[in-house]
Amino acid sequence: MNAKALAHLVIRLGLGINMLMHGLVRIPKLGAFVAKTEAGFANTMLPSLLTKAFLYTLPFVELTVGILILVGGQIGKWGYFLGGLTVSALLFGTTLKEDWTTAGNQLIYIIAFYLALSGLEESGPNRFR
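Above: the chain sequence. Below: its structure as tokens.
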């Protein structure tokens, strides 16, 4: 296994486990997660109904993203893409709250998803075999 393949494996495992566990640990306590997180958006322009709908969906999306990434192959690229879109949505909400520290952390995720997708492209068609 060459260095690029090892690098891709590391980012795949890291992002995959991270996203999987974000969803997995929140699902059993979904109501508490939604209530706690929704309170932080009370002073933003987001309607409560939209915020709640997003938060009730988020852990299932995170879980799905993690599974897609860990499965890898052609499916994995869609996990990276969906993960990047998910974190972009989170970034939108975070900046509405003016929580710049969390926004900075979310940008790190965006960069990681970008690098993972770019690495797939650079690896060529044999990357998925």
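The first helix runs from residue 3 to 26.
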